[in-house]
Amino acid sequence: MSMFRPDQPVAPSAPAAGAAALVAPAAQAALLDDPQEWSAFGRPRDASGTAPADPAACTWDSQVVLEGMHCAACALTIEDALRSVPGVRQADVSAATRRARVVWDPAQVRPSQWIEAVQKAGYRAMPAMDAFAREQRQKESRRALWRWLVAGFCMMQVMMYAWPAYVAQPGDLTPEMERLLRWASWVITLPMVVFSCGPFFASALRDVRQRRVSMDLPVALGMAITFVVSTAGTFDPTGIFGREVYYDSLTMFVFFLLTGRWLELRLRDRTAGALEAMMNRLPDSVERRTAMGDYERVATRRLAVGDTIRVLPGEAFPADGRILRGNTHADESLLTGESTPVARGEGSAVTAGSYNLQAPVEVRVEGLGAQTRFAHIVALMESASLQKPRLAQLADRIARPFLVAVLVAAVLAAVYWWPSDPGHALMVAVAVLIVTCPCALSLATPVAMLTAAGTLARHGVLVRNLQGLEALAQVDTVVFDKTGTLTRDGMALRAVHPAGGWDGAQALALAAVLAGHSMHPASRAVAASAAADAGHAAHAARWLVADLREEAGFGLVATVQDRQAAGALPRQFRLGSAAHAGVPVHGAGLGLQVVLSEQGADSAVSEVARFDLVEDLRAEAPGVVASLQQAGMAVQLLSGDRQQAVQRVAAQAGIGVAAGECTPQDKLAALRALQAQGHCVAMVGDGLNDGPVLAGAHVSFAFGRAVPLAQSRADFVVLADNLALVPQTALLARRTLRVVRQNLWWAAGYNALCVPLAVAGWMPAWLAGLGMALSSLLVVLNAARLARGLPAVPQGGPAEPAPGIQAMTISKTTLETA
Fold first, then answer.
1. Taking Cα atoms as reference points, which of 137, 140, 138, 129 lies closest to residue 63?
2. Could you confirm whether 481 is annotated as catalytic?
3. CA atoms within 13 Å, Cβ hemisphere of 654
4. CA-based angle 560:562:566, to the nearest 5?
5. Going by C-beta distance under 8 Å and a sequence separation of 6 or more, which residues neighbour residue 404?
6. Helix (H, G, I), strand (E, B), or coil: what is residue 645?
7. Could you write out the DSSP letters of every residue in 760-775?
8. CB contact at 8 A, 478 and 635
9. What's the CA gap between 772 and 441, in Å, rounded?
10. Residues contacting residue 685 through CB under 8 Å, at least 6 positions apart
């Protein structure tokens, strides 16, 4: 945590967080309990987009990184410890990411208290956005590498001393030489047991003290029994354990186990570590302009709205804001899934979490913390990373009983073999303890799910609910909304129909002059189409708008002066619906029609021109529909728009079943009817007015960048403006479920095959260790295949062009910018 005062500058290399870990425990607790520091590793649970006036007056949702845990049983232990603290309302721990989410009430408990509960359980918790946490994980990785190297060196040396016993014929080795080789092996094995095996013994001792069972307990028992039996044989060659020593098996087992865990750690950090990289995307500190006009470096979370900051090339923007000075390119792949840099000049908006790629820029801060889009994205990813799919919950529930069964099986195996050979009996028990460790079973589901979620996030799809991946793999029907989903939430001018005495270009220019004063999508479409005409400027210069008003929901009324007609009186024009323009409705076809009319001095209305507008179908929509149908999914369209417009869009997209003029309740009723027929339904909507139907579907997509992420009811939020991500996500979900099933079958088959071999005494400890390490590694490697990318789908062709006039599209982004 930071020890900076609000106005205290910091060195550029100093972390904005992490200082708490370098101070005394009492000072660290004081920092953790400071309400001003809580936003560094959490957010208000009931945040409405603004920082609370009193941080202690609302419930907080905090994230911590955990050290010392290795399995599902550890996760359950930490959850129990956190939930036992008064004031902690919810605790979720993920064994795959080694993170915890804690919902707590400041009126009853402080962070130092529930962090202390984790420490009493034998683990260590650090704020998830703490820079020191990253440093600690790097140190842990280096220590794991050193333990693996020491184990490998000791294994090679012990194998060299054990080799003569394997190849010697009777009488080749004298008793003195055999004892010398045993003593040499013992000396070489001792540092490996102390250093390389230290974490296993520490974890097992913690479990014994807490009277619980985790996956490290049987492994540590196996190591201890093997070393004790071999040590007894070394010190007393004539005793009951003096027939044989097992240093070679012990060193090989430890080496294989550490190899598997180290590779698993690397692969897990690479695949499921996207969340940490996302959370730590913001800089720890930033240059802020002072009242004197110079710049000082301050902690990022000390910024306030209205501050002016300088962002250097290669740095991430720490807050939402607007560029005051400078021009650059920004990497906004976090928001869009597209890695192509976008130009950002003076007056352009920049987003927290995007990278400045080219030149220094000065930015005025407009949004901080929970107000930023970056915070919404991180909140979604945090929530998904700590969720437990149904199959993972099942694995967690059976983890502890399974470990108890392993201990019982090992004892029974030792009892069975003891009369014939006590040393061999203990080694059989060791093999059973090692080979049955359910690491692969506990990793099978969460690693695959998190890898898939990370892959989707890199391509612009955020997974709000990991259960959604499992449900999406079973979907057989996909229902689309129209506006903003299959279409681009904008309109295109398709044709101009001038009345007698009017030229099409002149009529369009006049309509554009009026439409330029309105933000309605139809007006913007008319204005943009006219602007694309090379002669528009000359035509538009003819008209001077003297008075204009907009009647919401109907159209525009304006008084216009014709500059080319000397002495002509001002004329009144209307632009909008046929009813607003005062003309009959006809020739509208299947699209929307805007009418321009003139009202004479005698109140007589004469039509000037009609403009046919159509919604702009996404170019990829036909290919998306075709790919879903090829994958065996039926596609339907439900929209609140007019039936004719819905049928036109459905025909263009290749959708056979479409219904228009549907209220949200109608959509929900249609959805429930499909579900009643036994269909598994996915709903794809814009997330703005489809809340009930998105929540009612088996799985749902909120499509469009304008979706309020924190309030979305969807399982998937599509940030990138590409409809093809929907079938790609569905295909990846199917592939993910196949990988999960493969992992579960492998874990179950491995135990079913190896346990009988170990009980029968046909599997030495080193082979059991190799099997255990390979089983976990295979599960992680199989899940890593999901990180290769999204399945390809056809993109389809362009939407049909407007005859005679180039279609111009006004997107929601353009409207917001304007």
1. 129
2. yes
3. 17
4. 135
5. 213
6. helix
7. TT-S-HHHHHHHHHHH
8. yes
9. 11
10. 480, 481, 485, 693, 694, 700, 701, 702, 703, 714
Nearest to residue 704, comparing CAs of 507, 488, 478? 488
Residue 734 to residue 159: CA distance in whole angstroms: 46
CA distance 113 to 84: 11
Is the distance from CB of 688 to CB of 640 less than 8 angstroms? no
Q: What share of the chain is helix, strand, coil (3-state, %, to 5)?
A: 50, 20, 30
Amino acid at 15: P
HSE of 311 in the Cβ direction (CA atoms, 13 Å)?
Answer: 38
Q: Which residues contact 325 (CB under 8 A, 6 or more apart)?
A: 346, 361, 362
Angle at 803 between CA 802 and CA 807, to 5 degrees: 30
How many angstroms separate the CA atoms of 335 and 342, rounded?
12
Report if pTM > 0.85. no
Query: How many C-beta atoms surround the C-beta of residue 283 within 10 A?
Result: 18
Name the helix (H) or strand (E) containing 658.
Answer: strand 657-659
What's the distance, CA 434 to chain centroid?
A: 35
Catalytic residue among 130, 216, 307, 481: 481
Q: Are strands 571-576 and 592-599 parallel, antiparallel or unpaired?
A: antiparallel
- In eight-state DSSP terms, residue 798 is P
Q: Is 656 helix (H, G, I), strand (E, B) or coil?
A: coil
Rounded Cα gap, residues 515 and 573, in angstroms: 12
Residue type, 459: H
Distances (CA, A) of 571 to 514, 516, 565, 600: 13, 18, 12, 7
Q: What is the mean pLDDT of each run of 10 residues along the chain (818 residues)?
A: 36 38 48 75 62 70 78 76 89 76 88 87 74 64 88 90 75 80 91 89 80 76 86 85 80 81 67 55 81 84 85 86 88 63 84 83 83 69 57 61 78 85 83 73 73 81 80 90 75 81 84 82 79 70 82 80 77 85 68 82 82 80 90 88 81 88 81 90 74 79 58 73 87 90 81 81 77 76 81 52 33 30
First to last CA, the chain: 41
d(CA 407, CA 432): 8
Quick count: other Cβ atoms within 10 Å of Cβ 580?
A: 18
The two three-digit tokens of residue 750, written as one number: 């491995």
Q: How far apart are CA 124 and CA 137, in angstroms?
A: 12
Structure tokens at 229: 């039996």
Residue bearing tokens 């309302």: 89
Helix (H, G, I), strand (E, B) or coil at 603: coil
What is the SS3 assignment for 494? strand
Which tokens sit at 307? Answer: 């501050």
Cα dihedral 350, 354, 360, 365 in deg (nearest 10)? 40
Closest CA to 226 of 186, 167, 284: 186
* C-alpha–C-alpha distance, residues 211 and 501, integer Å: 95
Q: Among 759, 116, 63, which Cα is nearest to 380's?
A: 63
Instruction: Work out the number of other CB atoms within 10 angstroms of the CB of residue 285.
Output: 24
Cβ atoms of 354 and 316 within 8 Å: the answer is: yes
Q: Which two tokens stand for residue 627?
A: 């790919």
Cα distances (angstroms) measured from residue 494 to each of 230, 457, 714, 726:
87, 37, 34, 29
